[in-house]
From TrEMBL:
Keywords: Amino-acid biosynthesis, Aromatic amino acid biosynthesis, Isomerase, Tryptophan biosynthesis. The keyword Amino-acid biosynthesis applies. It is an enzyme of class 5 (isomerase). This is N-(5'-phosphoribosyl)anthranilate isomerase. It comes from SAR86 cluster bacterium SAR86A. The gene is trpF.
């Protein structure tokens, strides 16, 4: 079965207007983390408040953020999905009464055991482990781990997915593939031509 597709790290209204036209994309991710070059600006948020996401669901990405910051940020969106990248507990992630994805940073096959800590997650996003770095590493982990493990949850595969390796990512048969830096012409700058090129592989 063909995986669903998420384009993450959208920080520009022009790109958002372009990517919303592409039928094959299911989720659009927005990062709320100051240390990220893709951090959402207040200007973009104000535009988003009036934006029609059509059949695509916005995903709001947080890293160890406060409840207040999360509530304020998601208030600009209609029915957003939340994605937690930090050390958040299942209880904290559930407290917003929204569908959420929890990120597990994969260091080894044992990392997969942490999925059981998040029984309320609607999906688990697997990403490369890098010491002291929460996501956005642009590097992939050993995807053979995904083929070997038995998952109790829907799996979103992330980490350095680009036009050269997306075939390998698809072959692991994840529920969804999360693409970020692999469709950028420079750090934080998404390129619609690169998006269309990678979509040809699906």
């Amino acid at each position: 079965m063909k995986p669903l597709i998420k384009i993450c790290g959208i920080a520009d209204l022009n790109f958002l207007n372009e990517v919303i036209q592409i039928n094959e994309i299911n989720y659009l991710g927005f990062i709320f983390y100051e240390n990220s070059p893709r951090n959402v600006t207040k200007d973009l948020l104000n535009d988003i408040k009036r934006f029609d996401f059509k059949d695509k669901r916005p995903v709001c990405v947080f890293v160890n953020a406060s409840s207040e910051f999360i509530k304020e940020s998601i208030s600009y969106f209609k029915d957003p999905l939340l994605q937690f990248h930090g050390d958040e507990t299942n209880q904290f992630c559930s407290s917003f009464k929204k569908d959420f994805w929890k990120v597990i940073h994969v260091k080894s096959i044992e990392s997969i055991d942490r999925i059981e800590e998040y029984p309320d997650a609607s999906a688990i996003l697997l990403e490369n482990y890098k010491k002291d770095q929460f996501g956005g590493t642009g590097e992939s982990f050993n995807w053979d781990i995904v083929k070997k493990a038995n998952f109790s949850k829907k799996i979103v595969l992330s980490g350095g997915i680009n036009v050269k390796n997306v075939d390998n990512a698809i072959s692991t048969q994840p529920w969804c593939i999360d693409i970020n830096s692999g469709v950028e012409s420079s750090i934080g700058i998404k390129n619609i031509t690169l998006v269309n090129k990678i979509l040809e592989k699906f």
